[in-house]
Amino acid sequence: MKKATNSALMRRKNEKLVLSMIYKAPISRVEIAKKTGLTKAAITFIVDDLMSRGILLETDGQSETVGRNPKMLSLNGDAFYVIGINITRHHVAVGIMNLAGKMVSSDYFSLCECNKTLAKIKHSVEEQMKTAKVPKEKIYKGAVVTPGPVDIENGMILNPPNFNEWHHFPIVSELTQLLGVPFVFENVSSATALSEKLFGAAIGTENFLALRVDEGIGSGIVLDDVLFRGPCELGHISISYDGKPCECGNRGCMEKYAAIPAILDGTPYQSWQEVVDADDETLMKKEAEYLSCGIVSANNIFSFDKIVLCGDLSYRAGKLVSFVSDAVRNKMLTGKYPIVSTGAVSSRHKIAAAVAIYDLIS
Fold first, then answer.
1. Does pLDDT of 10 surpass 90?
2. Which among 121, 113, 116 has a CA at the least distance from the CA of 85?
């Protein structure tokens, strides 16, 4: 059953809409009104409130026509800060970023058992706030990302492979209580997509797939400029119906062929970097063929403008991008081919912090 939207929720929705436009580039109140359909009175109310809270700045712009120069609105990057925590299977990245996307401090340490890891996170955040002179009242939110699958609604890590100690762990409530800051949560693949949308290779792209390939394969999808919240496990698309058995219970999952450990199996290489440094085009083309199977299956449903290759595969990826582009084109049903590129955000701290920025503007 559909529910009515109360005025407070509508105001917050409109505020996020305005912030999302200003975050992309400085813009005038008149242009915001034109692009959003909001009344000038509504824009004035929202903008004046955001300026009173120090979130926006207003400066003189340059008019393209004769007349008074417009006032341009931009984000005050130092108005607030966000905490980004990226928990991988081996390490933890903890950092503080301002609203403009600048990391002001960061830390990185090895993963250990749950309670010790949380204690290290608490100590790291407190030390960084002290060193960077960031008062607690200026922290907008924290964001934590982990391997998936995860339960976003309940803030819980579910059952990611090779992450057993953290299975069914209520990470959001634990961090919120530990640090006294509200937290948002995403799996690392969706967070990677958001970081590329806000700071990287997908700026200005409204429909794209971020494919993260390392020890597994994860995917994040953005459609109509919004993160797709449905099932997004491209690594578990079957590319061979009677192929290798997968931990998920299926057979022939792309992850069993194209994840880094899988593609290196039986080769003399210990890492994808070694493959690239050796200029092994045969193995690169093999990887491209595997990846193209999953990419084309997803593209046949969503019709992406861009495919962004992230993770270990982004290392000196010029040739791989070319091979993936060719393989995708050869399998496509239509003439609209997505652009294939590599990710531009390598910082695990920034990938996590992007989730909190997205929460502010979306």
1. no
2. 121
